[in-house]
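Lab channel / #folding
Pinned by the channel admin:
"Please post every new chain as: sequence first, then the structure tokens as a reply. Keep commentary short and put observations after the output so the thread stays searchable."

First post following the new format, from NK:
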Amino acid sequence: MLKFSVNAKSSGTRARAGVLETASGSIKTPVFMPVGTLATVKALSPEELIDCGAEIILANTYHLYLRPGVGVIDLFSGLHRFMNWKRPILTDSGGFQVFSLAKMSKITEQGYAFRSHIDGSSHLLTPEDTVKIQQSLGSDIMMCLDQCIEYPADRKTAQDALELTTRWAGRCRDEYQRSGKSGQALFGIVQGGMYEDLRERSAGELAQLDLDGYAVGGLSVGEPKKMMYEVADFTLPLLPPEKPRYVMGVGTPADLVTLVGLGADMFDCVMPTRNARNGQLFTSFGTININNARFKTDTSPVDPECGCPACANYSRSYLHHLYRCRELLAYRLNTIHNISFYTGLMRAMREAVIKDRFKDFQADFYERQAVGEDFVIAKPHRMP
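Reply from TO:
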């Protein structure tokens, strides 16, 4: 079950505000999904996530398949009960993790053969397996298995990967239809490297499968920032306008503001949580490192414009002290702030789209964040 409706569009950009209805509740877009790799967003409880404004989280098929295993999660009839999260969940296919984490992996037409990064045990992950595993996880949105490639990649490598990704997406769709189970959505992933004609081909082939939504994969893999925006700018308009558009693994607050302007609806990234644990906090005026000595006697909140529990109740001085002492509370409060900032940013962008002042919002954001020129795309290169 998935329904997507667009409620408002921005003049002069491709930004749009919508509602994504899933079996576990509605999501207002544009939306950022905190990453809960192991059925937990690091340092936070599900209750704290709700207080931070999270509407949907992402969990990882590869990791959960290996540990605790599908058999354990089946005891709870899925992730929602297992982790006590009552809102929507998106699960990725596990392909990227096999590509990046497995001790040894081999890709064939059948799927990914790999050895676990945990204990070295041998496994085979096929497109059909990814659907079956994600059905057991009970996520609201499942991702098709795709082939991940490095940057830079030559044209033949990118073309072979997109062709395999298309075939695998068809097998994922067929397995889902064959299962006779309903209530979950299935998204495809556009590949093609940094080649525009290959991206166009991938998007067209996946659109013919009539999936529930479409993701732009293969970005933020080491390419220059400008190139990432150019590929996204080219690819997003190729996706069916009536379906949600998801840019995977991105990114900084400025990335989100830019990509929403290019037509993206959904995002995920470990940045707000990982950076929080490294002392970097995102604010309305840019980033700060709470470990810096200048915060030792700073009695002000992290961000005076933020109303999260960390900013409402604690000073920069206290957070600096906690972080310097490596107290566990430092990671919790830092993460609460960063997740709250990201979800608040998405709400602000949605409101700007509804009021048709998104271009002004972008300009003000870039100025306040003092971002470089790579971020400033006044209007998409290709409209609409």
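NK: Residues 328-354 form the longest helix (27 residues).
TO: also worth noting, The mean pLDDT is 95.
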